[in-house]
From TrEMBL:
Transmembrane segments: none annotated. Residues 52-87 form the HTH cro/C1-type domain. GO terms for molecular function: DNA binding. This is HTH cro/C1-type domain-containing protein.
């Protein structure tokens, strides 16, 4: 399937909804490290109680559908497990957070360490960066933890 981009309906930050949605499909991975498909995102959204089709996601990605409802944006966001603010705020900041979370998940899986000790409240991005660095050191010191 060829995806074309149109830049007609801009959201906060000056990029189109289609651009931001396509950025998610290009960068966010599932629990197995695979890219998402429209079909998988639609299925996840439907499992969460939303009504969303692969065909409509395709229309949003190509720009044929330009103004999704907030409920649709919410469904897509929840299916990708990101905040709806990704579509409403600066995408570079949120993309960096998504990439940071992905790196943490990868390092935690490889080292067997998790942030369970921090469940008492929100963790700042700076703290997560420090934990990722510690996990990288742990991995280097004990190659048996997985590469």
């Amino acid at each position: 399937m060829t995806v074309t981009h149109t830049h007609t309906h801009e959201v906060a930050g000056g990029t189109s909804f289609a651009d931001r949605l396509n950025q998610l499909f290009e960068t966010v991975r599932d629990e197995n490290g695979m890219t998402f498909t429209g079909k998988k995102i639609a299925a996840r959204a439907n499992e969460l109680g939303y009504t969303l089709s692969d065909a409509y996601i395709s229309q949003l990605r190509t720009g044929k559908a330009k103004t999704p409802s907030f409920r649709t944006v919410e469904a897509i966001s929840r299916a990708f497990r990101i905040s709806v603010t990704y579509f409403l705020s600066d995408p570079e900041e949120d993309l960096a957070r998504v990439q940071q979370q992905r790196e943490y998940v990868q390092m935690a899986a490889q080292t067997g360490a998790h942030l369970a000790a921090f469940q008492h409240g929100p963790i700042s991005p700076e703290t997560i960066d420090m934990v990722i660095e510690v996990l990288k050191v742990m991995k280097q010191q004990d190659p048996a933890r997985g590469n």
